[in-house]
Amino acid sequence: MQILDGKKVSEDIKNEIAAEVQEMKNKGEKVPHLAAIIVGNDGASLTYVGSKVKACERVGFESTLIKMPSTTSETELLKKIKELNEDDNIDGFIVQLPLPDQIDTQEVLMAIDPSKDVDGFHPENFGKMALDMSTFIPATPFGILELLERYNVETKGKHTVVIGRSHIVGRPMSILMGRKGFPGNSTVTLTHSHTKNISQITTQADIIITALGVPNYLKAEMVKDDVVIIDVGITRVPDETNERGYVITGDVDFENVSKKASFITPVPGGVGPMTIAMLLKNTLLAREQKRIK
Ligand code: GUN
């Protein structure tokens, strides 16, 4: 069994990006600038956005964090998005999800200028991704592809089972794994809450990508020998013995499933850090595309 070490690979990628930023600085060019909007005070979301901003500093990007109260109206948020769309200094920005109930997420995502949509959530970018056109690939799926590529995990002709059909992970992942090329050329099954006899499907899988948010959901008896496991789950499970009061837990019963797996991502230290690295990569791409124009 080999660990797909997202922590290490993400550090490699950040070093590569930092070197490119240094080159930009040496030439006197503007460095990439990422902005993030967060609405409300959800602890996990604040932590994720904080990590994204910290990662910007680490590679030499500029960053701006915009915190808006949980009572923010959709109109107020759309106004802020318009400002960022029109601000030449900002190369890319994200609106951290989920948003409070009074705000229509799809309206918000459609308001983002597709050329600054480094999350790749705008329908134009999502459509381009589905059509194999060059675009921003959502950071978590992009990170998973990068891990599979850097560890040379064979995907061609394999049966990939994706668990969960979220717009952020499951849906794009199911499209990307079936595309031509590497990683890709898989036969893909997308499973979700209405899937019957899921164990019958997962035991047929060569690769399982789980993005469910149910701690320890995937058990050893649900997988076959030599399976490749990508665990996207990051649930905070209360734990008094931990100084933070919780532990981050994946969707996979790691202790038992890892004994059968050929490759497996740990939680934490697997997909999570890759997501942040690929957001930086998309921001670098956004900057480069602006420079070419
Ligand atoms: N919430 C959970 N994952 C993500 C992500 O990749 N981007 C944004 N904007 N919000 C998220």
From TrEMBL:
EC number: 1.5.1.5, 3.5.4.9
Highest taxon, organism lineage: Bacteria
A Pfam family assignment: THF_DHG_CYH_C
Entry binding sites for NADP(+): 164-166, 234
Molecular functions per Gene Ontology: methenyltetrahydrofolate cyclohydrolase activity; methylenetetrahydrofolate dehydrogenase (NADP+) activity
Pathways per UniProt: One-carbon metabolism; tetrahydrofolate interconversion
KW Coiled coil (keyword) present: no
PANTHER family cross-referenced by the UniProt entry: C-1-TETRAHYDROFOLATE SYNTHASE, CYTOPLASMIC (PTHR48099:SF5), C-1-TETRAHYDROFOLATE SYNTHASE, CYTOPLASMIC-RELATED (PTHR48099)
Family: Belongs to the tetrahydrofolate dehydrogenase/cyclohydrolase family.
Self-association state and partner proteins as the record states: Homodimer.
Name of the molecule in the record: Bifunctional protein FolD
Organism: Flavobacterium luminosum
